[in-house]
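Input record, target 12 of the design panel.
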């Protein structure tokens, strides 16, 4: 029997801590990434799902890695990527983390009145730089304006095979929604629009197009 092809998927938000009880994050629920993981598993892939903190059930039969910060997510993804034939990065990774990191719960009067931020690693860029010719790397672009132009820039800059452009300015199609509507762009100038449907259907449409 042939060994299953390995598929690596990231999902959910990251948490960037300010002290032991406060953090910066975003509303990603993990739904888009979890549906991709579930459909990929059904298609026969060996799926590893690397996720930030979410409160939805884990898909059956996938290898699950739980992380919190962008730094932790990077460490796991960079380690697993070389063995993966397909990688799909849906995680809403925080681009910045606070420079300040307080101990325990910082007291009101000692809390900084302003926070300075430092850049987090761009994990997808790093994977794109590492990518070999037998691997397929798919990114997501969460955009609130000039969607396709911004998605196209990310596709090229990060050396991706495909990018899924997601309009997050529409509450029906972005963070936390049950449904989605996306445009899939390829490095070969292909262009597919998937109309409003469940995130599960969108996940199946994406996988059927990028893995033929
Ligand atoms: O989780 P849900 O509630 O279902 O919402 C789904 C979603 C809206 C989060 C998802 O569909 C989506 O659009 N994910 C991309 C979120 C994002 O961070 O997009 P971006 O345009 O900022 O980043 C572009 C790509 O680079 C993404 O693949 C991201 O995973 C990656 N990235 C970003 C920043 C960073 N420091 N490292 C990265 O790897």
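The sequence produced for target 12 reads:
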């Amino acid at each position: 029997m042939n060994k299953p092809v390995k598929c690596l998927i990231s999902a959910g938000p990251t948490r960037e801590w300010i002290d032991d009880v406060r953090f910066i994050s975003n509303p990603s629920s993990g739904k888009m990434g979890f549906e991709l993981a579930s459909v990929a598993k059904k298609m026969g892939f060996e799926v590893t799902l690397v996720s930030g903190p979410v409160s939805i059930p884990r898909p059956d039969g996938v290898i699950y890695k739980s992380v919190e910060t962008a730094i932790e997510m990077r460490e796991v993804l960079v380690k697993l990527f070389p063995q993966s034939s397909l990688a799909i990065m849906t995680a809403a990774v925080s681009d910045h983390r606070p420079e300040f990191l307080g101990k325990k719960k910082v007291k009101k009067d000692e809390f900084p009145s302003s926070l300075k931020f430092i850049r987090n690693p761009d994990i997808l860029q790093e994977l794109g730089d590492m990518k070999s010719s037998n691997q397929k790397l798919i990114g997501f672009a969460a955009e609130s304006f000039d969607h396709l132009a911004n998605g196209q820039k990310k596709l090229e800059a990060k050396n991706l095979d495909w990018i899924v452009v997601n309009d997050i300015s529409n509450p029906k199609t972005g963070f936390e929604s049950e449904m989605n509507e996306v445009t899939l762009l390829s490095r070969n100038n292909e262009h597919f629009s998937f109309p409003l449907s469940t995130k599960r259907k969108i996940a199946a449409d994406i996988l059927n197009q990028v893995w033929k």
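The helical segments are 31-42, 70-80, 123-130, 147-157, 199-210.
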